[in-house]
Specification:
The complex is a heterotrimer of chains A (about 160), B (about 290) and C (about 280). Chain A is built from five helices and five strands; from the N terminus they run E-E-H-E-E-E-H-H-H-H. Chain A is α+β, with helices and mostly antiparallel strands. A five-stranded mixed beta sheet of chain A has the order 2-1-5-3-4, sandwiched between helices. In chain A, helix 2 packs across helix 5 and helix 3 packs parallel to helix 5. Chain B is built from twelve helices and 14 strands. Chain C starts with a helix and ends with a helix. In chain C, a hairpin with a 2-residue loop joins strand 2 and strand 3. The radius of gyration of chain C is 27 Å and the shape is elongated. By secondary structure, chain C is of the alpha+beta class. The chains are: A alpha+beta (about 160), B alpha+beta (about 290), C alpha+beta (about 280).
Chain lengths: ~160, ~290, ~280
């Protein structure tokens, strides 16, 4: 199967590789870019652990082929904090509200919530729950995650 | 959990795309948003030697108000429909159905054309297209034709398009007058495929009599269905005389191939379907009466 | 980490822990039956007591004070009543490792120890009570959980965030087991629910807000600590099932099978209606 050259701008840096078309964006990020913060929970588009921003939009990177992301911009969990390492409001809220335990689903939740709050600065509780319903967590029962989401929304809304 | 190998093509125009489909035939599959196709490839439920990615063809994108209808390019993302005031005003059923589709991450990638061409009877758009009588614009290297929604859905995950045809756009007619619309569906969890649902439009005259009714059924057959008998039973009658529960039951009568699966028996689906039609009716009629 | 910090009077940031790497950690049987809290407390308690004795002795010797007046806090040893007199744990350790000649008599060189905990009570019992209210749509069979309260007694709470997180996670797993999760096989034994599309886990839209109450009854074990891993997943299923049973009892429904999918609830209602 003829391989293709792809260049993706990941967290502000151009990353190029020659890949099989069937390579998912998730695998491209994890193997070629060595950015393993993007996690594979199901590889069939349900769990949300692989969520990244593709041209600014939250997407399941296991449902995008790397070749489809050629010339696009991707932000992974590794690109959410400030360059000096300062946590984003969403990340800080997860820490403050015990929004993670094992941490496997966390990158997906953080990226999802980052995109959602950017576009919906004043969500109701119901809207937050709906926005996060595409991400699965087994450890937290979502309680800490929802608290973190409310804290982040309040903080981002206030600024 | 990785797809079988395939060759990848990314045409830049519709002409190139249909040329490829004509050349490759059954060995090729169109890749639009990928939200239905890629899981199937990953689980190896399907495999194709060639994928034709239509994601970067500009003429396939767009939402436009045209004379009496809303034109939507097949490559338009659900998220664009969700955000479009033209779609909300022109085809309320479409806007209301869109927010029920999956999760917003799915809506950022999935496309209108993809949903219709995939023809899942438990999806929202096929039922909406059927209810409002949408027309599908379809092109191949042999030319272009229009397929009415009533003739488009052939069977489970099957449309009447030829293997070398590409769905390029869909026209959704707009209704005028005192109208009300509702989409009611029952799913196990938020964003799951509907177990049963209804996309319903109703139009009233100045005396609150029904002048028009369309009921598209979700998840109640191998294809979306129109509840024709229920629709006919209400036209000409005063809204106050019509019992919502009865409409729901009538909508289920005569359904031949109601699915039975992990979510429930055929009888269970009909029970839920009747309730969804009844709720959609009540909601749409309330909206129309205030219009 | 908290237990070690408390026992030795050091800052949390000065405690490093290695877990789950069998190449470097001691040999043992692992966590089971929620014994981690009690067992870890016991082991840390013993090990810390050994080191604390040596640290206090070295500090007293260096500060020329009596051992009874030495206090350990913030990774430092100080003399009660004399704010200027103190020595850091780092300096104490340096003395222990590099200047053993300066150590008080009887204190061995180095500052390391290991301990294993053997429980003296056969069981450490934990308690939890779950309370749940729900609403059942009798047409579709959908169950909606309205209010959910857990009162847990895990003894003194080492970390309330961890306790509540554990309760929440277990409770939602229990809710999943009652209302959503089902491994289905066909008549030939083929698994039918092999993806997350078919095997349903609760998401953020299916879970109630969980309210917590804490009772702290010490156990006979070390620190009085008890495990908190059991109450969530064990308490939730009966609470949810019984809430649904209560809701449907006017219809003559008896629940004897799980899961309570909407279709199953409707089947129970229809069955009761035929009796």
């Amino acid at each position: 199967m003829p391989e293709r050259s792809v260049t993706v701008r990941v967290n502000g840096r151009d990353r190029s590789a020659i890949v099989e078309p069937r390579l998912t964006l998730a695998d491209f990020l994890r193997h070629h870019c060595r950015l393993t913060g993007t996690h594979l929970g199901c590889e069939h588009g349900v769990c949300g652990a692989c969520t990244v921003l593709l041209d600014g939009e939250a997407v399941r990177s296991c449902l995008v082929f790397a070749v489809q992301a050629d010339a696009a911009e991707v932000t992974t969990i590794e690109g959410i904090a400030e360059p000096d390492g300062q946590l984003s409001p969403v990340q800080a809220a997860f820490r403050d509200c015990h929004g993670l335990q094992c941490g496997f689903c966390t990158p997906g939740f953080v990226v999802t919530l980052t995109a959602y709050l950017r576009d919906h600065p004043d969500p109701s509780d119901e809207e937050i729950r709906e926005a996060l319903s595409g991400n699965l967590c087994r450890c937290t029962g979502y309680q800490g995650i929802l608290k973190a989401a409310r804290q982040a929304a309040a903080e981002l809304g206030a600024s | 959990m990785k797809p079988a190998p395939f060759e990848y093509h990314r045409p830049e125009t519709i002409g190139e795309a249909v040329g490829l489909l004509g050349e490759l035939g059954d060995a090729a599959k169109v890749l639009a948003g990928g939200q239905s196709l890629i899981p199937m490839l990953a689980l190896r439920l399907a495999a194709f030697d060639h994928l034709v990615d239509i994601g970067r063809i500009p003429e396939l994108k767009g939402i436009e108000r045209r004379d009496g209808h809303i034109w939507i390019g097949a490559g338009t993302r659900y998220a664009s429909v969700e955000a479009s005031p033209d779609a909300a005003a022109g085809v309320p059923l479409l806007a209301r159905a869109t927010r029920l589709i999956g999760h917003f991450q799915i809506r950022n990638r999935g496309t209108v054309g993809g949903s219709l061409a995939h023809a899942d009877p438990a999806a929202e758009y096929p039922a909406v297209a059927l209810a409002v009588g949408a027309s599908m614009q379809v092109r191949s290297s042999r030319g272009e034709r229009t397929i009415a929604a009533a003739d488009f859905f052939d069977g489970l995950w099957t449309t009447s398009m030829e293997p070398d045809e590409l769905l390029v756009a869909v026209s959704f007619p707009s209704w005028s007058g005192r109208c009300g619309f509702a989409v009611e569906e029952f799913a196990r969890r938020h964003g799951d495929f509907a177990v049963a649902g209804a996309a319903l439009g109703v139009q009233l005259d100045a005396q609150d009599r029904v002048t028009r009714c369309a009921i598209g059924l979700i998840g109640l057959g191998p294809t979306p269905e129109r509840a024709g008998r229920a629709e006919e039973s209400v036209v000409g009658r005063a809204v106050g005389e019509i019992d919502a529960e009865q409409i729901g039951r009538l909508a289920m009568a005569g359904l031949q191939s109601v699915p039975a699966d992990l979510q429930g028996s055929a009888d269970y689906r009909k029970r839920v379907g009747a309730a969804m039609v009844a709720r959609a009716w009540a909601s749409a009629v309330t909206e129309a009466a205030h219009a | 980490m908290q237990l070690a910090a408390d026992a030795l009077g050091v800052r949390i940031d000065d405690v490093a822990t290695i877990q789950g790497d069998t190449a470097v950690t001691g040999f043992g049987a692992g966590a089971a039956g929620s014994r981690s809290g009690s067992m870890t407390a016991g082991a840390i308690g013993e090990a810390a007591a050994t080191l604390r004795e040596r640290i206090v002795a070295i500090a007293a010797h260096k500060l020329e004070a009596s051992q009874a007046d030495i206090e350990l806090a913030d990774s430092r040893a100080s003399v009660r009543g004399d704010p200027l007199a103190g020595v850091s744990l780092a300096d104490i350790a340096a003395t222990a490792y590099f200047e053993p000649a300066s150590l008080p008599p009887g204190v061995p060189a180095g500052l390391e120890t290991s301990a294993r905990y053997t429980n003296t009570t056969p069981f450490v019992w934990v308690n939890a009570t779950h309370l749940c209210t729900c609403e059942v749509d009798v047409v579709t069979g959908r169950v909606q959980l309205l209010r959910y309260i857990v009162s847990e007694d895990c003894g003194p709470m080492i970390n309330p965030n961890v306790v509540e997180g554990q309760i929440a996670g277990g409770t939602v797993q229990g809710i999943g087991g009652v209302l959503y999760e089902n491994l289905v096989y066909d008549e030939d034994g083929n698994p039918m629910t092999t993806t997350f599309v078919d095997y349903l886990l609760p998401t953020s839209t299916e879970v109630p807000v969980i309210e917590y109450g804490h009772v702290e009854t010490p156990s006979p074990g070390p620190g009085g600590y008890k495990g908190v891993g059991e109450g969530g997943a064990i308490g939730a299923p009966p609470a949810v099932v019984n809430a649904v049973a209560d809701a449907l009892s006017p219809l003559g429904v008896t629940i004897t099978r799980l899961p309570l999918s909407p279709a199953q609830v409707v089947a129970l209602i229809e069955e009761a209606g035929r009796r």
